[in-house]
Records
---
Amino acid sequence: MNIVVLVKQVPDSGADRSLRSDDNTVDRGSANNVINEMDEYAIEEALKIKEAHGGEVTILTMGPDRATESIRKALSMGPDKAVHVVDGALHGSCAVATSKVLAAALGQLGADLVLCGAESTDGRVQVMPHMIAERLGVAALTGARKLTVDGSTLTVERQTEEGYEVVTASTPAVVSVWDTINEPRYPSFKGIMAAKKKPVQTLSLGDLGVAPAEVGFDGATSAVVEHLKRPPRSGGEKITDEGEGGVKLVEFLASEKFV
Amino acid sequence: MSEVLVVVEATREFGVKKVTLEMLTLARELGTPSAVVLGGAGAAQALSAKLGEYGAEKIYVAEGEEIDGYLVAPKATVVADLVARVQPAAVLLASSQEGKEIAARLAVKLDNGILTDVVGLAADGTATQVAFAGSTIVKAKVTKGLPLVTVRPNSLNPVPAAASPAVEQLTVSVTDTDKLAKVVERVAEQKGSRPELTEASVVVSGGRGVGNADNFKLVEEIADLLGGAVGASRAAVDSGYYPHQFQVGQTGKTVTPQLYVALGISGAIQHRAGMQTSKTIVAVNKDAEAPIFELADYGVVGDLFKVVPQAAEEIRKRK
């Protein structure tokens, strides 16, 4: 099975993140940029499917030059190769334009299965799998906590508010995964060394047949007007329990009309 | 005034979710609210009274297996056709997984901008969003097409405004491509009478400090006494204390209740990302240096196994 895993480089969600003051895009310059955590679960799932059914695993990333670090890191887990869509005109692209670019790249790669994380930790927008599926005219099985491959039939178990659903589709399809699906492997030393030699193909917008005016700020379908840091919360009263902590807590709740 | 389409979010037992009432309230500020009911047979009949109570002037309905038997794609097709026909002033959906997914497909179909996790929407289409774990407030606009936004639950107070909605059945013309992802089974899990996590006005969460799955009864007890939902930190979920769908944080649910009670939760960034926009936060933790106290309006440093049962007893006494 020919599997493509979408990998996004994001600013580390464990540190302070912000938008740039000059153009309102995510500030990547001052951030520690890492693989979107949820994507590691998608890579793991792809490797497991390859191990069981054979095939090839390709990483697909759209992002600036520095996303190369994340691509090498992804490759060190075990995928065979990577494709990096990089073009100066992409800076400032909205989700709609991003899906156009990724769909164009996927069209060239001809995947049976596209795997990705259910959301990225920076935008948390969750729209990419369905946007790509809509453009490619293929199924999207989203939010998988379990994925079974049987020939060309994919079966996904997905958590819902009220329980879970079992959903099926035939390949080709897009499947997004939550962090409940598996436990991603750590790259081995051998894997890290091997990753340095794995092929990484770069594609420009020209290679994909997408006009620069369709992406970036020019092609954006939405715009940030302004942004500001929310003032940090400050702690209120803190008491140490000396036998009356529970009662005092309820007194506070009562004073706020919660009890 | 132009119509504003509100895509209704409801439970599978046909209960209107609070976020739908919030969207109807918001839609009244922008135009004339029209509710769009997409679901299993009988949905509209069960939901229409409530939708009318909150000001829906019209209810568009597409029901049945063609709509409900597949993942979101048929719903997006129906809404896209409706948008092309009525040219609404805006389209509002819930910022749930399904709401975002329908909106995603709509954005591509209509070549239209999309804004998610919106907590406010002005008449000129400027949306307010909260980004980066609640640390940044963003004002943004759709610059191509109509305002297509998904609204985060608990963003505003739903206000009733009685209307007598006219019901219109939509002709469903979904394509074969819309039917590629088939739902073969739906399993309802025991849920009890607690409110849903993202919509609850009180959330009581437990963390690693709760110690084991059995002890989560303490968390549930406080939640039930306060009429709230139960949440859990990632540490508690990863340790198997509580199921994943109740996880609050960066890789779980984002909640904005009136009251958030953190029990045995240290307050790592991962967790704060999902709860720091709550109105009032209280915390019980044995570590006086735990970062959760930097957020808490009221904090008790102490053993939760002493403090929490005493608090439960005190609440019962006051009832």
---
Amino acid sequence: MEIPSIVGAGLIVIGAGVGIGRIGGSAMEAIARQPEASGKIQTAMLIAAALIEGIGFAALFAG
Amino acid sequence: MRSKLTIRLITLLFFLMPFLSMAGGEKAAGTDLKSEIKAYIQHHLEDTYDFSLYSYTTDEGVHKYIGFPLPVILWDNGLRVFSSSKLHHGESVAQAGDAFYKLDHGKIYKTDADGTITYDESHHATNVKPLDFSITKNVFTIMMVAVLLFVVFSRMAKTYKSNSIPSGIGRILEPIVLYVRDDIAIPNIGKKHYKRYMSYLLTVFFFVWTINLLGLTPLGINVTNNIAVTFCLAILTYLITTFTAKKDYWMHIFWMPGVPKLMRLVLAPIELLGTFIKPFSLMIRLYANITAGHIVLMSLIGLMFIFKSWLGSSLSFMLAFALGILELLVAALQAYIFTMLSALYFGSAVEEHDHDHAH
């Protein structure tokens, strides 16, 4: 049986979602530990999230 | 006093506009509503040859378009310029000199005097496509935003010559400009080299942000969900990175220091590919984010007409409203991410390493 490509795209989007969720969660923990470094943490969080998001969108378009 | 009144009028106009366009959509409810909404969203995502704010069908079945035409510029054995009103949204044939042109599925084709368009098996038009340099809706918007940004920022720059305290719109924009410098450029590029890149970073930040914000007004503008636009922005970042790169940047690509010799041979093609993937991901990210946002927003607005019950419709209205607020954030966030990653790539291009220690 052939698996439609949209299923693969869905799997990748799930992975991307989990990844971005983990980044957000870890960033929150980090900010709670060191509120004075929140600016730097936010920047790093956004960059990492954006990079993962790119993969998610690439999968969406391929699917 | 006068400016207050103008602001109020503009605000009122913006709030009224969606109602105007929705009133237009309701009248044509003779055909299947779902496919009509689908076609409407599809049409919204495409670039058009005229600036149409909305369209409706009169009781006599005539399509009316509210907006203004833009010039069509074609290169087809000589320059041919005519107004897009001649195309009548694909309903009639436009004559320019001795040639005839017709709009079919949003593209201009060369036809005979009767406007016959032939199709192949996969329903693609086989007519000749002339080279198209038209001022389309997207091109017009880009020009408009460019002029707007130029006027606003050159006026703002002029006020600093007499007074170091900003006035007028500068009071809002100065913190943003400083933010781009202090939180995007300097940490990523470094104090030594950041100045050469500031003009590009500021331009790209304000350009993307303004255009994303314009996409959320009921004017129906959406430029950044055209992949050609984001492609050009990404190409600019790529060219600047490539042509301002220092020796260290190229050495880290082709002959990575601090790793075994054999690994360097393996790493070189991967690193070289990486230089292309970076701008590619910039292009896809901006394009996909804005496109996805527009599709979801338009679908939720469309749901209001499908539900036809006060509960469902008001629920999807509230969802659309909440998503609209979220899109405001996304508009700024995407501009920020684009600028930030560009700065990061520029930073890697001018970085100077001391090679005493292994990486």
